[in-house]
TrEMBL record:
Gene3D superfamilies for this protein: P-loop containing nucleotide triphosphate hydrolases
PROSITE patterns: ABC_TRANSPORTER_1, ABC_TRANSPORTER_2
Name of the protein described by the UniProt record: ABC transporter related
CDD domains referenced in this protein's UniProt entry, alphabetically: ABC_MJ0796_LolCDE_FtsE (cd03255)
Keyword vocabulary terms for this entry: ATP-binding, Nucleotide-binding, Transport
Pfam families the UniProt entry points to: ABC_tran
Segments forming domain ABC transporter: 3-236
GO terms for MF: ATP binding; ATP hydrolysis activity; transmembrane transporter activity
Length: 236
């Protein structure tokens, strides 16, 4: 799979009608097996770039190609299918459904569209494995309000991965996690790229940078490649 952004500019109108332009003339190509950490302070445009990569937002200007085909040629229905089948999105606000248990929240992608797991048994196994990997097994039947912030974040991550997506987009995945879990999540995201997925993580946590193939900082609408220090030895 390949996602290619060409000359992407995006602007919003703020409350007073002024224009905010978090992305200016961005070029970026991600292929299966690529991992990228987008680094920069809050408000610099990381989420906007993730939304565009995940086809949740069409940019104001520029071209998005998915496997060489322009996004302009996708209707809304086809776009929804692309997102449901290929993209795993972990939002900053988690967006867990409050009336569903941990296990049910993770099952959501299967309910929305029959995922790659074909029968109830395979789906159950997938969810059990994710619960185990993310240390949530004992919380499986809890409701979101009964969890700590870090646990909620891990449920959001498990849900993003349930469908075995080709693209994983994670917005501040280590917020509210302690040091040990940050490390665990970083390593784990790094491993996903090794499984031929595209992984893009937006963060202002420098600790995560060591796990990515590429690290870009986003500043004044521009991407800049950061040269990694010794930590790069551990990158995938
Ligand atoms: P980050 O993820 O790095 O915190 P965002 O992409 O969320 O940055 O935001 C980039 C800039 O665009 C910020 O100045 C933010 O206030 C502004 N912005 C984001 N979304 C909207 C929106 N829907 N309407 C208006 N301004 C927005
Ligand atoms: P985190 O992932 O945020 O570091 P932990 O998984 O280490 O959190 O959780 C710390 C402990 O506190 C766990 O036993 C967790 O179940 C418990 N806990 C935290 N908040 C709540 C809550 N609102 N309801 C029930 N248990 C909670």
């Amino acid at each position: 799979m390949e996602i290619s952004l060409k000359n992407i500019t995006h602007y919003y109108r703020d409350g007073t009608g002024d224009q905010v332009t978090p992305l200016r003339n961005i070029d970026l190509t991600m292929r299966s097996g690529d991992s990228l950490v987008l680094y920069g302070p809050s408000g610099c445009g990381k989420s906007t770039l993730l939304f565009i990569l995940g086809c949740l937002l069409r940019p104001s200007e520029g071209q998005v190609d998915i496997d060489g085909r322009s996004l302009l040629h996708y209707g809304e229905k086809e776009l929804a299918e692309l997102r449901n089948r290929k993209m795993g999105f972990m939002f900053q606000a988690c967006y867990l459904l409050p009336t569903l248990t941990v296990k049910e929240n993770i099952m959501l992608p299967f309910w929305i569209q029959g995922g790659k797991a074909r029968d109830g048994r395979t789906e159950k196994k997938t969810v059990e494995l994710l619960l185990e990997q993310l240390e949530l097994t004992e919380r499986a039947d809890f409701l979101p309000y009964q969890l700590s912030g870090g646990q909620r974040r891990r449920v959001a991550m498990a849900r993003a991965l349930a469908n075995d997506p080709e693209v994983i987009l994670a917005d501040e995945p280590t917020a509210e996690l302690d040091e040990e879990k940050k490390d665990f999540v970083g390593k784990w995201l790094g491993e996903q790229a090794g499984k031929k997925k595209i992984v893009v993580v937006a963060t202002h946590d420098p600790q995560l940078a060591v796990y990515a193939g590429r690290v870009y900082s986003l500043s004044q609408g521009q991407l800049q490649e950061k040269i990694l220090g010794k930590g790069a030895v551990y990158s995938s």
